[in-house]
Amino acid sequence: MFNNQQIMDLPKHSDISFKPLADKALLHTQLSSLLFYIPLIGALIAVCYFNEAFANKAQTYLLIGMPILVAVSMAYNIISVRLRGFAVRDHDIAFKKGVIWQQVTVLPLARVQHMEIHQGPIERKLSLASIKLFSAGGVSADLQISGLTHDDCKNMRQFVQNYRQDDATTQATLVDE
Predict the structure, then answer these.
(1) Distance CA 15, CA 94 (A)
(2) Torsions phi, psi of 162, nearest 5?
(3) What whole-number distance in Å separates Cα of residue 176 and Cα of residue 38?
(4) 163 secondary structure, DSSP code
(5) Which of 41, 84, 98, 146 is the most buried (most CB within 10 A)?
(6) Beta strands in 54-102 (DSSP E)
(7) Coil, strand, or helix at residue 64?
(8) Cα distance between residue 78 and residue 27, in whole Å
(9) Full-model pTM
(10) CA 155, 157, 159, 160: dihedral to nearest 10 degrees?
């Protein structure tokens, strides 16, 4: 007979103990931002050089606005990276992010279909990596964690693979009984 008991005390996701990202994650984020701003500033300088009318109108705004924009972006990156964290638990992986709107994503390990570890050139130089976890039926990554050490990514991938193998063994044992 089917019995569905009501749970009175739900576990709290705020009880999750999150581990911070790698020490060099902030450096990676700052360098990535600079790789966006430097060409943008170069393009604006070129436009001002070749278009004197634009330079006369926008020079003051650009000289004041661009440094403020870069400084605010760098400050936001510092806060954002420090607020991120991840947790690998017995049956799921949790990731928190966000400065203004905070988000906690919890992905059950039983739903993980496959994983990817990615290292760009800056990440490779800093010994960092990103891991993407895909669940069954999803087209895009359900969980992407950037700013981890390459060893943390490999350990996380191995943990998920071991979990899936243990789960498959348990399912096979139940079918045999």
Answers:
(1) 12
(2) -65, -40
(3) 63
(4) H
(5) 146
(6) 85-88, 92-97
(7) helix
(8) 9
(9) 0.79
(10) 170
Beta-sheet strand order (sheet of 92-97): 19-20, 85-88, 92-97, 103-108
**Angle 45-46-49 from CA coordinates, rounded to 5°:** 85
The string of pLDDT tens digits covering residues 38-56 is 999 999 999 999 999 988 8
Nearest to 136 by CA among 164, 162, 158, 156: 164
Torsional class of 102: left (φ above 0), alpha (ψ -120 to 50), beta (otherwise): beta
- CA 158 distance to own-chain centroid: 19
Instruction: Label the pairing between strands 128-135 and 143-149.
Output: antiparallel
User: How many angstroms separate the CA atoms of 55 and 63, rounded?
Assistant: 11
**CA pair distance 149, 21, nearest whole angstrom:** 8
| Per-residue pLDDT reduced to its tens digit, 86-127 | 999 988 899 999 999 999 998 888 888 889 999 999 999 999
Q: Give the list of residues 6+ apart from residue 55 with CB closer than 8 angstroms, or none.
A: 47, 48, 49
CA 71/CA 68 separation, integer angstroms: 5
Q: Which of 59-93 are b and which e, b meaning 16 or more Cβ less than 10 Å from the residue's Cβ?
A: eeebeeeeeeebeeeeeebeeebeebbbbeeeebb
